[in-house]
Structures are given as structure tokens and as C-alpha cells.
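Q: Can someone sanity-check these two? First one:
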Amino acid sequence: MMISRRAALHLPLLAAPILLVEARARAEETTGWVSGLHSRVRLVAGGLQEGGPKRLAGIALELDAGFKTYWRSPGESGLPSAFDWAGSENLAAAEVLWPAPSRFEDQGGVAYGYKERVLLPVRIAPNDAAQPVRVRLKLDYGVCREICIPASASLALKLGREASAAHRAAIEKALAKVPKAQPLGAASDLAILGLEPKAAAGKPSIEVLVRAPQDATLFVEAPESWYLAAGPMEHAPADKAAGDGRFAVEILERPRDPAGVLDLRLTLVAGERAVETSASLDTARLPR
């Protein structure tokens, strides 16, 4: 059975194989593949970002059939990824972007992530825009089919101003899948409209109102010590506009005496489209 998120985070590092292989860049376009447990990883270069001095890169991760890896918020039964850029040269900042995930549920719980392959775009800001950036990345990530296992790979790549058309196209395709930032109540056919505290079956929950097609999925991210999980989208009452619906978000973990404002990041996914909205709720309004 899949281990729980809380148990997984306390796994000793020696409990599973961890790959620590250095992949040297063979050219300025890509590293070689670094093979790990049921997976392989490489870095690819994407050239200059349009309209600015930043470079684009991508972290390509492929998994064996039936295996998955995790989103920035791994869910109840996943392992979070970690990115260590120590040792890079001419690197001011590296921003990892996340394409919209899928929701997986089995006897071990709910997990958010990607099956078989994913390309994570990275925006690279140089200290000196006229010089190349030599990035070094130690990536820790989870691989799972039935049991979550931590894996690790070390990669190095020199990023110039140019990149192959194939790598650039792949990165741009992945960027198109990254949820678009959108305010609460946006006038869009895919939007998060509002949220209200509720009590469902005697348990505290939050109702999130949306405008979305019926197959939409909601992902909820909360601060440390909180864990919230959204159920399936429910149809709106007949007096609501077509396409409107709601999600019941169960509060599975929270501080003993929460106080102040609860800041949430809500990601709404419908097919190839996704939006991301920040919202806040006064914890005093939550049912006890």
C-alpha cells in the first residue's frame, strides 16, 4: 500500500536507493539522461526568454509505464520535490514553473502529479546578461506506483543565448500548461468566484464556487500545518448560470487554535486549461 504523506516525509534516506550521478553537459542544448529508479532526468536549454535577459530551461523527467511523480504540492500521499542550485555560476535566480497536475486517488490517499513524463519550465535570471549561465542542479523527487520512493539526480548545463527549435518548442508547450494567474471573481468562463466556510457532516469545510465545465478539478494549497482536499465538482442549483458549480473542500489538518487569516492558493484545471487564484479566509469564520 502507498504510505501516507506524513510517514513518507520521515523516511530515512537509506530506506530507498538514491541516485547521485553527475551529468555533464555534452553541449549547450541538453545534458545526457541521468537514469534512476524507474525514471530518468535531464536538463534542456531554451534560449533567451522573449522580451528580456532571462534564459529558459527545462527539467525533463520521464518515468516507466505506470509510475508517477509529484506536483509542487504532492497531496496526502506524495513526496515533494526539492531543487538545489548551489554551485551554479552567473545565476541570480531560478524559478521552477509547474504545468497543471492530475489528481490520483487509491487506497493510500490522494496525490497530485504527473504520470510517465513531465517537463518543468525554469526561468533563469543571470547576474550578467552578457555572459552564459552555468547551472548545477541537485534534484530530489519522488517516484511512485504503489510505494513512494525518494530519488535524486545531479545535473550541470551551460546556458547560452540560443537553443534548438525542438527544445524551445517543448518548453513553450509546457509553459502553455502552467496555470494562468487570475483574480478571485474574474469574468472568465474558467474562474474561481468565491469561498465560504461550511460544516459538512459535522466537520469544518470550505465551499469554493467556480465557473467551469463539469469535468473540472480543484487543487487547494494551504500554509504549513494545514491540509485541505477538494472533492469532485458538484453541479450548481437550477437557478445558477450554466457551467457554475462548487467544490466541497475538507479541512483534514489544521493548527489546534488557528487565528488570523488563512491564505490559500487555488488551482482550477479543466482539460488543457488551468487558472490559479489567491484567496484569503478569516479563520474565525471556520466552524469549530
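And here is the second, same format, sequence then C-alpha cells:
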Amino acid sequence: MGFFDLNGELGRRYGSIGVCLDQPLVELQAWRLDHGFTAEGPGAARALNIANALAKALNLRQGMHMQILQTIPEHAGLGAGTQMSLAVGLAMSSLYSLNLTARDVATLTQRGSRSGIGIGTFTQGGVIIDGGRGSNTDVPPVIARADFPDDWRIILIQDNSHTGVHGELEAEAFRTLPKFPAALAANLCRLVLMQALPALAERHLPAFGAAIRELQACTGDHFAPVQGGRYASPKVGSVMQWLDSQHASCFGQSSWGPTGFTIVENEVQAREQLMMLQTTFPELTFLLCKGRNTGGILCDINNRKNKKS
């Protein structure tokens, strides 16, 4: 849902808020191999790159076969790289009793360089606030966590013809964008602490949404020179304008996009809004989601034992 301190004058930079979704998700099965790595299914190439890099870093001589059953669209602003990295790394750790934590895997795979949301949602689920990066930070720490209300629904707005800023272009953006005003960062921190989180605790979507919309507007305008406007996809931007005209409580862009989102009070309202969106914007794809208040699940398919990651 966005960064709230891009200024960093207090010694920590970024700081972000995000929510874990029940879908899309990464689901994979893994088996030991005597040597080498193989993978099949959606996202297999990325999974192989992650596994090989981890094995090299850990000096692991054995291998692993991965069957990927589900994955998250890449470069869509939904954390696909982080979730795949954690799934592959923790599967490898379990198979070979490496005792790695999600934080270990994130560090080894260079995830969480700016935001700790992906690691926090993987380990805990729910709504996550991370504390940004300080001078000695490896992974931004989770400083607050709350359940996402069971009744609320999230509609993802997906432009499959567009990809979000990523890789070197993303790194270049953070190097070259102008300094974020300290007063604006202070206001966003206040909005998160004194509006978004209390509204979440009281299940008050209008107040929560007002804070998120302001956060989105400020950070979106800051990143506009890189992503071409407040929103990465003009088509998704048109949906945002429509949602505003419909007085929607909460909407914005997920990370660098192009995926957008809107949050509604309940299932009935969500399905009504979903039908209107599909009719009004037939060129886009929409996905109705719930918040997920549990983290990733590690399951031994031989012994049928589950445990939270």
C-alpha cells in the first residue's frame, strides 16, 4: 500500500504498510535430488535461479526438484520475487535441515532491500507495518501487525499488457528522484499511526481508506517521473478516477504496479462493484480477494504435518 517515509532524515528510510492476500499465491512441492536443480510449472525459470543462487551461497552439494503449482504474476507489484524466494529457500531448508528462517532466506536472496512487507506477510499474514531501513538494517523489521477484517474484500485491478518498474530501473529511480519533503513524510507517518492503524482496529473502512488514499497520492506523485504518472498503467489510472467518482473508500496501486486495488466493506458490495468494473473496463482483469491473516504454510507431504513458516 505504500511507503510513508521516503525522506529518511531521522536515520531510517522507507517504512511501508501492506496486506497479505489469500490469492494469488505461490504453491510448490519439492523433492531431494542427489545433485542439480530442476523445476516445472509456472515460474520455473525464476525458481531455478533462486535455488542455484541459494545452493551456491550455502555450499549445498545436493539438489532439489520443484513442482510449481501456483505462482504470482511477475513485475505486477504483488511481491512475486520475494514470495518465490522464500518458498524455494524454506523448502530447501526443510529438505536438508538447514534451519533457515524467512529472514535468513531474504538476506541470502537479497530480498527486503527497501520493504519488509513481503517477508512480514509471509511469516505472519495480516496487515504489516515495517520500520524501514537504518544504517545497520539487513531486512526492514516488522514493527506492527494487525488482522485484516474478515468481512472486508479486496479487488485487484490487473493490466496484463503492462509491467511495473523493476530491476535496475527501480534502483535508478531511488537514486535519481528528488528528495522527499520532510514535512510530507511526517504527515504520512502520522496518517499511518494515528489514522490507518486505529481505523483498522475499529474496522472503520472510510477512515482507513482516507489515510491510504492520501499515502497513495503523495507517493504516486513522487514516483510519477519514473512510472509515467501517479499510476504506472494509464488504464488502471482510469479505474482509479472512476472509483474516486463513485466515492470508493479505499483504492490505490500495489507497489510499483501496474496492479491496482480497491477495498470494500463486505462480500455483497464487492461482488456488485466487481460486476460494474468488469462491465465498465472489459479490457482489464479483476480478482476478488480476501485478506490472509496467517503466514506461509510448510507441509511435509510424506508425513502430512503442517507448520507455519
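A (reply): Looked at the second one. The first helix runs from residue 44 to 58. The first strand starts at residue 2 and ends at 5.
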